[in-house]
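Section 3.1 - Work completed
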Amino acid sequence: MVMACRVINKRRHVGLQQLSSFAETGRTFLGPVKSSKFIIDEECHESVLISSTVRLLESLDLTSAVGQLLREAVQAQNNTYRTGTSTLLFLVGAWSSAAEECLHLGVPISLIVSVMSEGLNSCIEEVVSLQVPIHNVFDRMVNTKTFSGPETFSVGVYPFLQIPSGTGLIQNEHDLKDVASQSLAIYSLSGRPVKSPQLFRSQDKVEADENTSQTPQTLKNSLLADTRCRKSVLTHSRHFSRTGNNQWISKPDGVLEQLSAATPRTYRCDDLVELEVGLSHGGLSSMKLVDEAVRLQYQNAGVQQGSCTVPFLFDISRIFTCCLPGFPETFSCVCPGYITVVSISSTALIKELQNQPIRVVLVEGDLTENYRHLGFNKSASIKTVSESLKVQRDGSEELWTDHVLQVLTKFNVNLVLAQGNVSERLIEKCTDSKRLVIGSVNGHVMQAFAEASGAVQVTYITQVNENCVGSGVRVTIWRSIPFDAADEINRMAIMLKTEGINLVTVVLTSPVTAQVQTKEDTFWTCAYRLYQALKEQKVFLGGGAVEFLCLSHLQILAEQSVNKGNQGCSGWLHNTSSWLASSVTQYRPTVLKLLANGWRRYLSTLLYNTASYSSEFEAGTFIQHHLQNATDSGSPSSYVLNEYSKLNSGILNSDISDKLEQIPRVYDIVTPKIEAWRRALDLVLLVLQTDSEIITGLEQTQVNSQESEGFLFL
């Protein structure tokens, strides 16, 4: 698919330039406000709508070696964590440009690799101070608030970003759902500011707030005045404003503690809804479905407050999606059991089977006449000479189909679930005999039905006996479908349930077929964010806080290298030649600054994408201002933490809350974010070291301009 082209200078590192070009195509996917793209096929002129990095790289024709490496890196990140791919792609581009600039300045490749690697490792160690522990979020599941009402629906935003209400990004509830939270202000679906408990508040703070007056009127009036302006103004940011001389330490249990003249206060996350809102990153409608799925699992597990000895664990392997394009969006919901689609011609059969318990057989592989399991070895002494004759094949399949029906009739089986493909002829004959056969069923679904119904999975239908057959399964039509939608898709949704089954299906619908894939991707991204956060029992302070700290930390390291010379890098390289040691002294600050510039570009693009600034240059000026404040504070990590503790948030909306501290926080998951950084830098350094001949300047011989430049088509 062709999207754009970029001039490639053959006198500079081609591989790094290609990485930068590929990464440039996905910059609009960074942040909570994403812009979809149409990818157009140049040959057949067909187009596809994509809204994620993964779908983008699937659609692009990445035939070069560098393109393949980039795709593999993004796929590895997505297959493992289902999130962090946009960050990975952007940093690949930013750090490719940094490495290319290092080469242009004459920095040795070995030094680029060493300093960049050590710089990133130092950043990873530094941001540990921004981790927030998660404690007992399921303890109050019964009485805690849910996403069920509009009052709890708030946009997952970036704390240091704001946009006044005059920009008109959100007009009504429909816009909020469709545009995926384009406003950076905290809004409920009803247009009112969110009233949700504060995450980082100690008990004494909560009690004190109950007896204190409202926010000072002068501050409130100032905030209200700012919202009337159409121009974006960022003030009083939680990230980027200085406060008093409070200091922060990280206790052994991971709790962030603030040290001041007053009694020390501890901060942690112990509320499920607050965690979900913080991890939604603009995908609130998807996170709402995730919340409902978690609560269904909680109920299915039989967990009751005060009566459970085993803590509840969110099992993402027992959650499945069923996508129904062409259906109204209001049909999207979460249901217990397994929902799948079958041909609309099965309507009469489903109506006859519903409202009665039926018996089920579970087949692990394909349900076809010629299927053999992977370990099957055909006898060498037998040779089939008539296998190619269609008449013989048809006769053989008919005999096999009749035998399968005999087995199902013998054990009174009306439902067959197969993990693989199913013979079309068998489906037809089973339908005629009032038996439902469903293929391509997920392995976890098979296991759930085996546990709940008592069935034992078999490889071949001939292995079925009475002990293998499950019972108590019920089949029903999921819900009534509008006739126009049913005629359009020629399919119907059915629900399979049995008592005690640990299975939840999330139904995703949209009248626009092109949006269904995006909705499914967004749902799984939110689900895996929550799953990973609960698994690790910790999150990062989000909204760019971590990246800002990395930027500030690298700049300090670069300045220290300039001031201390060899002393500042004596521990970096050992037993090296004097030439290399002098190169480290000379070039280390340059490499660190260029590496830090990648974080600067990341934050600038983030601000620009969210419409807070008219240009990335303007956003960069804002970032530089707060970088200076963080440096002057003497402790950038304390500076960021102090901003999160402030009540005068820079997130404004048209109806300022009397308690601004109630605005929800934003969180990032720890391991996926760090792994995205590592994968990005590893890919850049791999491409950097693959070319043995790198031209960083003009040669003595003149190079034809047409030969020195080429076009890279994406």
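Second construct:
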Amino acid sequence: MSSYLDLGGCRKRRRGGEKVFKFKTFGENGCPVEFDGSFRDNVKALVEYGQLEVNLCGNGVFSWSFQLEVHRHPPLHVVLFIVEEQIQASSSSSINLHCKRCQYVGWGHHMMCNKKYHFLLPSKDTVADCFNCDETSFDDPNPEKGKFNLVELKGHIMHGVFHSNGFGHLLYVNGMEMGSDQLAGYQIMEFWDRLCTGLQARKVSLNDSSKKRGMELRLLYGVAYGHPWFGRWGYKFGRGCYGINQPIYQKAIEAIQGIPLCLLNHHLSISNNDISVIFSRYQALSDHSMVTLGDLFHFMLELRSRLPKENSIDSCNPATVETNCRWSPKRVEAATRVIVEALKNAEFRWVSRQEVRDAARAYIGDTGLLDFVLKSLGNHIVGNYLVRRCLNPVTKVLEYCLEDISTVFPNSEALIINNSKAKPRCKITKVQLMKDIAYLYKHILKDQKPTLSTGVFSAIPMATRIILDTKFLVKEYTEELSMKGNSNCSNGKTFKLLCTVISRSDEIDEGLKKPLPPYECVCLKENATFDELKQEVEKNFREVYWRLRSFVVETIVNLSVKGLDLVMGSVEMGQKLVFIGSNEDQIGMDDGGGSGIVDCLCGAKEDDGERLISCDICEVWQHTRCVRIPNNEEIPHVFLCKQCEEKIVFLSSLP
């Protein structure tokens, strides 16, 4: 899908004088605005530089567009749309207004915000559908109502949404391979990350469902790098499904990364020689020993990033044994061949270094020469064989093994070890590399054979499922606004406090029973009084939260002051304050929106976005997967949980 938006083709859109910004710098401080306020202030400052669009997302919804130049030669532009969605315009039902994405990631206690801000990079086709250039003008005061809504259309290159409290969600990233008129995934993510940083977002979540050629990237990159693909931009474990927590997730990553290649190769080569061939192919390319499964996938993905798209690189560039030593090349070559013969006599099994050395001493009396060659020979190619060297993970003893690579590189010629001018003999293309990655992914990580269900390999299917069940990632940008310098303040206000509120109805003698809203940075003048502070707090929280439109501050927790007392001197700069107040609407500060009590066998206590089923007696929700209802089956009309079923059986047995 192309991201090139040729909006010049829309006759009625041509308004002239529309500024074009650089895509690669948009969102940085000063481009197009100095981001020196709170999140809401920064958004307001940004949209002043955009082109106001009329009726783009329905009547009464404000939206702005920004023309962004990706590169000039060849010309490539995208358009960023910012859509301000008012809660009143969304729905009249408070249940519908509750953000499910916040609930899934653990922010369900947050109150509903007054506004959402959608940031969209539409595709060319999406823009064409929405604008209908031949019939509808942006500036037409009477367009056909309800025909299109940019926010609701699918197929965007990027779609992110923020609540007015600075918490947001990245909904879509549809990147493409680099081309003449396309944006790659990493370009979109860098753009999004600049926006979040510049706007001073607090936290941003995403549901990682990214795939490439059928491979789940959170699993592939988890094995290779210890973090998902989005981890390159600081996104980390947010919340796992099915009761998975961060320590469990981390142990799963470590377990699957640490699977020894030597044991895996020995185990799989019995039934699948192709995997052994692939292992040998990339061990021959690597200039260091690859010991674990994580090492192998890390090397292959790093190689992919360095490999030209259409070309290939040498994949069989055997490093030579050093010849700048006290032994002649002829003696080094002779010792090498003796060691290879000793390994051949071992019938391709792993043998200790001492065993190889003892066998070679029958022909080579110089132990110094043998030690030198054994040290230099690990993971080198000799003729049609790859000499592998690995530390046994159990005995901690250095071991050697010989692998026949004639099937990997069938057209290769014998290699003279002491010839420093030996030429590379084979090439690996990017296409072949991706095929090999997909093959290993399928046969080791995804579709495990029964041979991988015992012993140390039983960790693979379990760890794989844990990693795949960890979908919600979070990046923390500015959880609490900085107290340094004069950022986030304006109009001469330099004294900053972190403030939050609690409803009088939610206060109890023992403390505060409900989670507090996120702290807001309130800026004051140095001579401000506590009455002015209370007014500023009311203004901020009324502006942010739907439930606090009529909130009135009454007192401050653990602080006894008078209204005309000066704030400075009574509290320290950056101090956290909790304000108690009341709502005229008598509406509690908990928005609800949940689906009832969740108490699943896996340990989950909250809705995590996976399919749930409710017991018809106790009305407790559980995952369908945990009660063994396959996802491809419909939910039964009548369902009893295990506890209720046991109670019924017990009662029926009574006389």
